[in-house]
Amino acid sequence: xxxxxxxxxxxxxxxxxxxxxxxxxxxxxxxxxxxxxxxxxxxxxxxxxxxxxxxxxxxxxxxxxxxxxxxxxxxxxxxxxxxxxxxxxxxxxxxxxxxxxxxxxxxxxxxxxxxxxxxxxxxxxxxxxxxxxxxxxxxxxxxxxxxxxxxxxxxxxxxxxxxxxxxxxxxxxxxxxxxxxxxxxxxxxxxxxxxxxxxxxxxxxxxxxxxxxxxxxxxxxxxxxxxxxxxxxxxxxxxxxxxxxxxxxxxxxxxxxxxxxxxxxxxxxxxxxxxxxxxxxxxxxxxxxxxxxxxxxxxxxxxxxxxxxxxxxxxxxxxxxxxxxxxxxxxxxxxxxxxxxxxxxxxxxxxxxxxxxxxxxxxxxxxxxxxxxxxxxxxxxxxxxxxxxxxxxxxxxxxxxxxxxxxxxxxxxxxxxxxxxxxxxxxxxxxxxxxxxxxxxx
Length: 442
Ligand code: NAD
Ligand code: ZN
Ligand code: ZN
Prior knowledge:
Layout: E1 2-8, E2 11-16, E3 28-36, H1 39-45, E4 56-57, E5 61-69, E6 81-84, E7 87-88, H2 94-97, H3 111-118, E8 124-125, E9 142-145, E10 153-154, H4 161-164, H5 170-179, E11 188-192, H6 196-207, E12 212-217, H7 220-230, E13 234-237, H8 243-250, E14 258-261, H9 271-282, H10 291-299, E15 305-308, H11 321-326, E16 330-333, H12 338-350, E17 362-365, H13 369-377, E18 386-389, H14 422-434
Helix pairs in contact: 5-6, 5-12, 6-7, 8-10
One zinc ion binds near residues 60 and 61.
């Protein structure tokens, strides 16, 4: 099959690799009809996440058609349409039982690596480095989905791929970010970053009752989308104004009740802090750039919440702990517990309360993944979100947008599905171990 593979910093290639196959009773093989590129993929693309290996298959936002199920999967059958959550969770461990799915302790066979870096390990994640399991990802024609009896949600009505694809990650991520803000009537929520996660955080903050949402970025098309499609009341260009000053003015000097950092470790900042972070990183004194997070902590009102869906991998320098403690802030974060939100958010989509497809600006064939990464990373052609269609050939102009040209009902292609190898072997080892319990020995 074809898959988009990582080869190094800003080097991804679409290659022919071995087809995935069932190796555990609770596996399913999914033929992927739609898959997206996430801001989290950019952290891999830009070389921020350690333990990537050449040939690793990228991608953790995907959906498709079930081609094959293992004997332990009784809730899915061949031909079902499913969306697959990016965290891999067993459904039965201490954390899964507490609804903390991204902390599942049975799905990262490389937990020992993660423990060295973070003290404890999160769950395994598709296509997201060997730190979180080395699972083959979903920017491919097919994927093996471990614990398929727990994760995938069936799409049984006429909703298009584009309406439901983002249940796999960014819609629940934006929603959890807003939910973590514990929004009260009358609240003002400020959102740093108007990428896909920021857009859905804005939508969700409004759904959860925020009176005013202020969105921050520097790309006009993203700010426009935040206002016109996501429902932000006000947008601010951080390259043009002093964000903390303006937020003070807008909130009578008190600060926003909650601040969402939907930027993460590659924050861009103008001025002295931007130079500081770039210099520290160049000297390897910090791994992540914490500009947006620092600003959010500084801006938040006393006793407020700083909610961090943005991903950080390692260390940030100069965290304003004084502000944090003396203002009695609450910091909430995490890889999203996607499983928790699948059903309720699908219901909102079914009822027409939400149509997440508004963020899609680019629809490309899988073959075009290398260009797609460049376009998304550099925000060329006003790109906000790219969806790749593995069954399409690369005939289309990259700038086609806002028209559902591909639809979701692609023809079935062959599924060899029997030989492991390449990255699949890594994922295979992962799930083999994972199925047997907590594994810290790989
Ligand atoms: P993206 O790269 O498209 O968006 C990031 C946005 O932040 C960009 O529009 C950029 O211009 C803006 N930005 C950069 N510096 C800024 C600053 N100083 N102030 C305000 N805005 C700034 O990515 P995305 O797909 O929206 O993802 C955003 C973050 O969420 C990433 O870190 C990603 O890894 C993370 N994420 C987390 C989860 C999770 O489970 N927690 C899931 C998906 C994505
Ligand atoms: Zn993602
Ligand atoms: Zn579990």
